[in-house]
Write a structure and sequence with these properties.
Blueprint (H helix, E strand, L loop, with lengths): L4 E4 L5 H12 L3 E6 L12 E5 L5 H14 L3 E4 L14 H29 L2 E6 L3 H4 L5 H21 L4 E8 L13 H6 L8 H12 L10 E4 L7
Parallel strand pairs: 1-2, 1-4, 2-3, 4-5, 5-6, 6-7
Helix pairs in contact: 1-7, 2-3, 3-5
The chain binds NADP nicotinamide-adenine-dinucleotide phosphate (NAP).
Length: 233
């Protein structure tokens, strides 16, 4: 590995923050983003932050300069949203917003980094999807479709980039304690999880660390589930 430079989208809170802190601890240099970089409530000598709205073309275009200067060889596509509603009540706006952020956003940010990785002949792309993309969830037709799309994107891109020493994988978390699951997690859900607890951001971050490292050299095109056993195929 030429260097250890990582971009993490949505790195200011939740799973993204857990990933950023864990990568910093392992000696990576991290460029973390969120929609308003003044929302970062932590700092580190190897951390830089940038404004980025992955659903907004102008914001993505402005971020291109930061990517070119930073020269990342690892990308963690973490930023994502939910807009849950039962299908009959789901508006087209809520459908479009979730697809545009969770799926189109992954496409756009990956486009920004891939050329540099190809030039440097080494790369890791790690997409945070969800078990909702495989098992489905009532009220989440938009979210499930976006995350299934991310997993499919992962497999196809892995086949395109494998010969260039770039691996592409997804991580599909189950229920992780963050703002996204606040008010959603209840005892009924916990009872269904074989490990009898919700996940912590560190449970996802440790797998990101492994997939970012040389030790994961021969793993690509996979969706790895981190859910305490909730969804078993
Ligand atoms: N928590 C779970 O149980 C769970 C389970 C499965 C999958 N996931 C996935 O894990 C990822 C992180 O989720 P989380 O639970 O940590 O969520 P979270 O606490 O709600 O944090 C979401 C992050 O995404 C960023 N973000 C949202 N929309 C964005 C946009 N348009 N442009 C740029 N950044 C944007 C947010 O930035 P701002 O602060 O600017 O809003 C924030 O940093 C998501 O992809 C989510 O789908 C989570």
């Amino acid at each position: 590995m030429a260097n250890k430079k990582v971009i993490v989208t949505g790195g200011n809170r939740g799973i993204g923050k857990g990933i950023v802190l864990s990568l910093l601890e392992c000696g990576y240099e991290v460029l973390a983003t969120c929609r308003d970089a003044s929302n970062f409530d932590f700092s580190h000598e190897n951390l830089s932050v940038a404004n980025l709205d992955i659903s907004d073309d102008a914001s993505v275009e402005a971020f291109r300069i930061s990517v070119e200067e930073f020269e990342p060889n690892i990308l963690i596509n973490n930023a994502g949203i939910t807009k849950d509603n039962l299908f009959l009540r789901m508006s087209e706006d809520d459908w479009n917003e979730v697809i545009n952020t969770n799926l189109n956003g992954v496409f756009k940010i990956t486009k920004l980094v891939v050329k540099g990785m190809l030039k440097r002949r080494w790369g890791r792309i790690i997409n945070i999807s969800s078990i909702s993309g495989s098992m489905g969830n009532p009220g989440q037709t938009n979210y499930s479709a976006s995350k299934a799309g991310v997993d499919a994107f992962t497999r196809s891109l892995a086949k395109e980039l494998g010969s260039r020493n770039i691996t592409v994988n997804s991580i599909a978390p189950g229920f992780i304690e963050t703002d996204m699951t606040e008010g959603v997690l209840d005892q009924e859900i916990i009872d269904k999880i074989p490990l009898k607890r919700a996940g912590k951001v560190e449970d996802v971050a440790s797998l990101v660390n492994f997939l970012s490292s040389e030790e994961s050299n021969y793993i690509t095109g996979q969706t790895l589930v981190v859910d305490g056993g909730l969804f078993m195929k």
